[in-house]
Amino acid sequence: MAYIRKRGRNSYLIAVYLGRDSKGKRRWHYETFYGTEKQAEHRKAELEVKYRRPSGPRTAAMTMGEYLERWLDNTEGTVAESTLETYALHVRHLTAAVGEMPLYGLTGFDLKTRLKDYFREYVKTRPLSPATIKGIYGTFRTALRQAKADGVIADDLAASLKAPRVPHKERRVLTPEELVRLLEAAKGYKHYLVIRLLALTGMRLGEVLGLRWQDVDLERGVLTVRQSVNVRRRKPNDRPKTEASVRQLALDQETVTLLAAHRREQEKNRVVALQGLVFSATDGRPLREMAVRRTFWRVLKRARLAHIRVHDLRHTAGSILLDTGVPLATVAAFLG
Predict the structure, then answer these.
(1) How many whole angstroms separate alpha carbon 133 and alpha carbon 128?
(2) Domain boundary pick from 111, 126, 160
(3) What is the rounded CA–CA span in Å between residue 209 and residue 183?
(4) Are 147 and 153 in contact, with CB atoms under 8 Å apart?
(5) Whether residue 325 is found in the same domain as residue 209
(6) Residue pLDDT, tens place only, 59-116
(7) Is residue 167 part of a domain?
(8) Both 39 and 68 in a single domain?
(9) Are the CB atoms for 318 and 202 separated by under 8 Å?
């Protein structure tokens, strides 16, 4: 909305309505123009294009923090629970950085500047990895794209946000000889069978902890990955990470023998596991991820191997297959 008012000879006042600020107060852009009435009309049109915004008064009064909270609420049920938890962690940082900024008049430059300043100060006192910062930028772009699609903002602000570059970190994988040492050192530990499955099948930790007896065929020596576990909440997910994650994996005879012995032990001790889980804690729920990780760290030390992550066992399995000549597509399907 805009209007022109004649002020004098060849002088016009152009007013363009900007919407409402964070307190709901109306805002206008005023400009005095010198020229003919027709030229003033052209200038008014230019200003309307410059300040055009499709959102209404209530949207104009919304802050970025308010929008992010609404976006988070609307996202619930559309993504995996673990993804929603990650979004919530990221939104806390975003709210601290840009939460008080009104949606009206936002530019990509403003957002980039505020985010850069926030993270520069934050990391001076608390650790925050470049990968985490990159993830926060990714979440913000997702939210901004939704805001654009919903008509909450007029411009595609997500396009201007470029996450800081994450330095490439070469992840170490075990050689076949080191893998043998690891498995030998793991024998006798409570979570040996979990570590063995992680190392030989390339399964994700959540997939191993979510494995059910109904998905294990001991006679055929095959297991089927059908679900995983939210390792933070110790809660089974009703589906794996991706559609490609549903897959069958062949087991070696020693692992089949160990699984059969583990099942007999469960039955002997009358363990009642949630959903018939292969691995469960005393309360029947999935094992605590930190219990597995601590065991893994002890095994590495005992085997005199350099520190690697549990997830690096997955990369190890894939790397060994590739080194033996297995096609990349086959390895990708194997890892899911």
Answers:
(1) 7
(2) 160
(3) 18
(4) yes
(5) yes
(6) 456 889 999 999 999 998 888 888 888 999 999 999 999 999 888 778 888 899 999 9
(7) no
(8) no
(9) yes
